[in-house]
Amino acid sequence: MTRLPVRSARVLFATGDEQSHPTVQCPRRGRATPFERCCGCPHMKKIDVAEDGAHGSVDCDVEAATAALPRGRVDVAEAAVRVRLGDILGTDTTCVTPDVALREARRRLTNGRQRALPVVDDSRRLVGMLSKTDLLRTTDQRRHRTKVVADAMTPLVHGLPEDAPVAYAISLMAFEGLHEVPVVDASGKVLGLVTSTDALRWVAGALGYVVPTNPAP
Ligand code: SF4
């Protein structure tokens, strides 16, 4: 039996509407699968989700080939190549479209746990990232003409595929100075973010530390 967390990529549109895209990392398909599919699946044993349908867990009778958090001390280098980014995705990621007002994106970044927001088109395909650093640069240099996210974001960011090993994200963070890496499915749609904190927690788990289920931000 495998307990799978429901992860959600939530898209904020310029109208103020929000759309959630909850997925689980399906061990049978080996990739992210819309949460709704579990509801009618013969392998589903139990579903425990919040009213919004975007958070919770699914008990699935298919054993996962890789554990998101290794139990006990393991060979970190071997596990970092074997475990995929889809297995360690953060559970809740807010994305914005390029026409969202910059002040609203700033509010989300200031009050939320994310240090950067993936910027997506109407189909949830990645078109850029808006980080706190982008906001600071905007405040300094382009105060008078930045009104929407597109004016301040870093465009043309490439996401890592969900089946890329954890080692890829750790290398990017270590050598490219990234703090968060967007993870996308086969059609380029954003599934979520892996942050440097997620990666460090994963390494700590692989080194044998007991990582709390709901760690502090
Ligand atoms: S319940 Fe079915 S669809 Fe859901 S994760 Fe398990 S095998 Fe995949």
Provide a count of the helices. Answer: 8
Question: What kind of sheet is the major sheet?
Answer: 6 strands, mixed
Content of β-strand: 25-35%
Helix content: 25-40%
From the spread of the alpha carbons, the general shape counts as globular
The H-level CATH homologous superfamily of the largest domain, spelled out, is: CBS-domain
Rg from Cα: 18 Å
The small-molecule ligands in this entry are: iron/sulfur cluster
CATH architecture of the largest domain: Roll
How many structural domains are formed by the residues? 2
CATH names the topology of the largest domain as CBS-domain
Which CATH first-tier class of the largest domain would you pick? Alpha Beta
Distance between the termini: 28 Å
Number of strand elements: 12
Oligomeric state of the chains present here = single chain
Unreliable segments of 5+ consecutive residues? none
Order of helices and strands: EEEHEEHHEHEEHHEEHEEH
Q: Which structural class best describes the helix and strand composition?
A: alpha+beta
Mean pLDDT: 87
Short description:
28% of the residues lie in helices and 30% in strands. It is an alpha+beta fold.
Topology of helices and strands:
Elements: E1 2-12, E2 18-26, E3 31-34, H1 36-39, E4 44-49, E5 56-60, H2 76-82, H3 85-88, E6 92-96, H4 102-111, E7 116-120, E8 126-131, H5 132-141, H6 149-152, E9 154-155, E10 160-161, H7 166-176, E11 180-184, E12 190-195, H8 196-206
Parallel strand pairs: 1-6, 10-11
Antiparallel strand pairs: 1-2, 1-5, 2-3, 4-5, 7-8, 8-9, 11-12
Bound molecules: iron/sulfur cluster.
The site of iron/sulfur cluster has 13 residues, from β2, α1 and β5.
